[in-house]
């Protein structure tokens, strides 16, 4: 019988949900869905000082926004997006309690490491009993001094194993000195630890390179490497797909599984996301927090699609790169993840988002654009049906050119501004609205538009073309100044659509204003 696939995502709530982690979460999700498996969300929150409510929220809200629903983990069902937001200055623990997040759903809970401390302590006892771990009484200060001395001598600065074989009597003395011990893993000193990584293939580390890892600190809190193994083992995780930055931890973790007599999961280490300069993706390359992309008007479907293609390709038979979640689920294979780092290409993401925006039904797009227009002050919600109709027209003009929802503002704001508040780009003003020739064209056009019987695309086009012929100038000498006068800019949707949409009254007002000199 095939093993049931159980994968997990294990974020630490110590910073905003980064696109690199999102991509790893997505790969886990696609893998689980494609194999009829289970996707677990576990929160690694043992670093009490660094946990923040905003970080946890950004992960939960981000996964929900992308549609990456987890099967087991913190329970947010029944909470709206608004409910999920932390209160201003809310502490991490207050946030958990207020929303009862730690109740969790699934049979392997709790799903917050901070609530699993007794499980770690039990495992510590087991390892100590087996002799696979030992108490270490060295204080952090002593360890630091020794490390510095060794470094100064350019020696091996790893823990020297001085507490590895203490006699019970010596331990007693150290305890009586008031020392609170940490617990360290007794690493084998010889041999190799190897695994067949789904992405990197056969990978191995010499055990002699590993130091006796701290499993539990003297304050009783587990370390990452220990807690992750206990949790992955107890949660019956079969495949660990995670960022390559954790790879040096993997041999230590494998040795721990072995010491505990637990099955070792399959590992897949996903290469990191890079900026265009091939350095690790960071804020200096641009936005990296998932929700910033949402706030700029990227669609979740486009984010999922674009992130999935970073370092993975759908292989033969996929038509193009625009793939639905369903298609991704069907095609995803961790073995096809590229071994080298993937460049996070903002332009490609915008292109992808534009593709998705153009595919949207106009009314759906309008709904998504309204909050952006309202925030920019172009409209005030709620809209009357007349205003909604006009917003719909404006959005229809922009749909072809938008790369994100926020583009709607720049693309259409001229359409909403009252004539006396219309702003003009320098180029529009200097090139097209500051010379007599253009102003003469505009004055003439104004009169023709005033008496035009039907103000539609075709009639407008013949007026403009007729005018250019009669004045003996090229059509562009009419079109450019008119666009500049009506929209304040040198670019935008087709002029005749734009005029039709603005309507006669506003076209005349704007031509008058331009002719009066701006
Ligand atoms: N909490 C770890 C992190 O956020 C998880 C790493 C892992 O998946 O094992 O990096």
Q: In terms of per-residue confidence, which ranges show pLDDT below 50 for 5 or more consecutive residues?
A: none
* Broad structural category: mainly alpha
How many helices? The count is 21
Identify the bound ligands: glutamic acid
The largest pleated sheet is described as: 3 strands, antiparallel
Q: How widely separated are the two ends?
A: 78 Å
CATH class of the largest domain: Alpha Beta
Average pLDDT score: 95
CATH architecture of the largest domain: 3-Layer(aba) Sandwich
Q: What's the total number of strands?
A: 11
Q: Strand arrangement, largest sheet?
A: 3-4-7
Shape: elongated
| Percent in strands | 5-15%
The helical percent reads 40-55%
Radius of gyration: 31 Å
Q: Could you say how many structural domains there are in total?
A: 4
Look up the CATH topology of the largest domain. Answer: Rossmann fold
CATH superfamily of the largest domain: HUPs
């Amino acid at each position: 019988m095939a093993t049931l696939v159980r994968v997990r995502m294990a974020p630490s709530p110590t910073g905003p949900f980064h696109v690199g982690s999102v991509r790893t979460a997505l790969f886990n999700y696609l893998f689980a869905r494609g194999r009829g498996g289970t996707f677990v969300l576990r929160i690694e929150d043992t670093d009490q000082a660094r946990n923040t409510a905003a970080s946890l929220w950004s992960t939960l809200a981000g996964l929900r926004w992308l549609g990456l629903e987890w099967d087991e983990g913190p329970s947010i069902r029944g909470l709206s997006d608004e409910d999920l937001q932390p209160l201003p200055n809310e502490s991490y623990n207050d946030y958990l309690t207020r929303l009862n997040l730690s109740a969790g759903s699934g049979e392997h809970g709790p799903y917050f490491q901070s609530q699993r401390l007794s499980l770690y302590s039990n495992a510590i006892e087991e390892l100590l009993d087996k002799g696979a771990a030992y108490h270490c009484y060295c204080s952090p200060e002593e360890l630091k001094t020794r490390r510095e001395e060794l470094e100064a001598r350019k020696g091996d600065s790893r823990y020297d194993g001085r507490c590895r074989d203490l006699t019970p009597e010596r331990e007693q003395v150290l305890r009586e000195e008031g020392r609170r011990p940490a617990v360290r893993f007794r690493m084998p000193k010889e041999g190799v630890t190897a695994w067949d990584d789904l992405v990197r293939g056969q990978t191995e580390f010499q055990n002699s390179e590993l130091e006796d890892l701290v499993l539990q600190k003297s304050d009783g809190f587990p370390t990452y490497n220990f807690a992750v193994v206990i949790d992955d083992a107890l949660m019956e995780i079969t495949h660990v797909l995670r960022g390559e930055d954790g790879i040096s931890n993997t041999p230590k973790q494998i040795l721990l599984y072995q010491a505990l007599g637990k099955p070792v999961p399959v590992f897949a280490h996903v290469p990191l996301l890079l900026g265009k300069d091939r350095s690790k993706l960071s804020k200096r390359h641009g936005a990296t927090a998932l929700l910033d992309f949402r706030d700029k008007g990227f669609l979740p479907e486009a984010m999922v699609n674009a992130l999935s293609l970073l370092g993975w390709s759908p292989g033969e038979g996929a038509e193009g790169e625009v793939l639905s979640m369903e298609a991704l689920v069907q095609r995803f294979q961790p073995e096809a993840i590229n071994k080298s780092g993937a460049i996070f290409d903002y332009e490609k993401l915008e292109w992808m988002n534009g593709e998705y925006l153009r595919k949207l039904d106009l009314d759906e797009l309008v709904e998504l654009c309204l909050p952006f227009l309202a925030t920019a002050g172009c409209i005030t919600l709620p809209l009357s049906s007349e205003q909604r109709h006009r917003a719909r027209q404006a959005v229809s003009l922009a749909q072809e050119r938008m790369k994100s929802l926020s583009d709607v503002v720049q693309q259409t704001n001229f359409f909403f501004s009252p004539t006396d508040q219309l702003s003009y780009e320098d180029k529009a003003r200097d090139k097209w609205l500051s010379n007599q020739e253009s102003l003469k064209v505009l004055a003439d056009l104004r009169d023709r538009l005033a008496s035009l019987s039907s103000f539609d695309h075709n009639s407008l086009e013949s007026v403009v073309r007729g005018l250019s012929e009669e004045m003996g100038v090229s059509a562009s000498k009419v079109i450019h100044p008119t666009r500049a006068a009506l929209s304040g800019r040198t670019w935008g949707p087709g002029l005749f659509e734009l005029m039709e949409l603005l309507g006669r009254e506003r076209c005349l007002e704007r031509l008058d204003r331009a002719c009066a000199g701006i």
